[in-house]
Amino acid sequence: MNALARVRELLRAELRQRVPPHLNFWHILGGLTLFLLFVEITTGILLMVYYRPSADEAYESIFYIMNDVQLGWLIHGIHSWGAQLFILLVLAHLLRVYFHEAYRERELNWVIGVLLLLVIGAFAFTGALLVWDQKAFWGTDAVRRVIAGVPLVGKAILYFLWGGTELDANALLRFYVFHVGLLPWVAIGLVAIHLYLVSRQGLFQPKTFRSSAQETYADVVLRGLIFVILSFGIILTLAVIFPAELGGRADPLGYQSVKPAWYFLPAYGLVKLIANKTAGVALASVGVLGLFAAPWLGRNSWVAWGLGMLGIAAVALLAAYGWRW
Ligand code: HEM
Fold it and tell me: What is the value of pTM for the model shown?
């Protein structure tokens, strides 16, 4: 038997094995998240070929990608819609893990997960500025003003992230470096640790959602592939029907009030609700710390459900407030 036939035989034997009975449909969310990370990195690399990270050329290079580069508009659309679906799936995966209480004895992996969530937030925030249109500029500048209002550390944070206290070419270059040079490596490193821990610790056995069907790995792989194709189809369709938009070129003298993307609405709502910026930032930090501490706070199932529902209600109300404002 040659090497190829041997690999095929081994693979076939593996695929015929039965999966553990507690592996259920919802485990697909983690896998799909992984697929979308791959889509974002691939389309991001393609966009980098034509993108210019300077205040003089950034907007024009995006315009060029969207209008002159072969299928540039589609790659840009996939990157933009893919990012939204990615965030949606990460949140769904987080809720799945939380409400199955799959963080039990997997505290470290939960913490790695929350770090991944923050990295994904940073990806979305730094990526938004790169198009350098009015919405990108004034949306990012609103955050700069919030950070500038935080006593003691505000200025230091701005110097580190913005490269100064104003939003200018320095900030654009820094955001670009974070978006394409730093965050992808941090994300890949964290995902590698995350998956290593999943394989080492095995999947948690939830009390609920126990599957009675005796599935094989082939069934699970096939289902996964179907959902991968389906999610990519959704992104493609959205990118074609609603191509990514580009507003007017960023004008530092032409103020424009802008609403943030849906995933930043809870933070926006909080800023609008609490006038004192220090108090607002402190409250948001408590929320993030609470998320980190969830496995220890939710030792009892009833407490975990209560806290989970409370957290969802708070985030939804803040988002609704941010939306209406
Ligand atoms: C880029 C982001 C992420 C990727 C690619 C990812 C991927 C995965 C995959 C493939 C699994 C195994 C299958 C499954 O349980 O769904 C998993 C499990 C897990 N994930 Fe994530 N994840 C991400 C973000 C998160 C976040 C934000 C959290 C929570 C804050 C989290 C917490 C966990 C935990 C605790 C497990 C183990 C669950 C169990 O044993 O059943 N992950 N992740």
Answer: 0.94
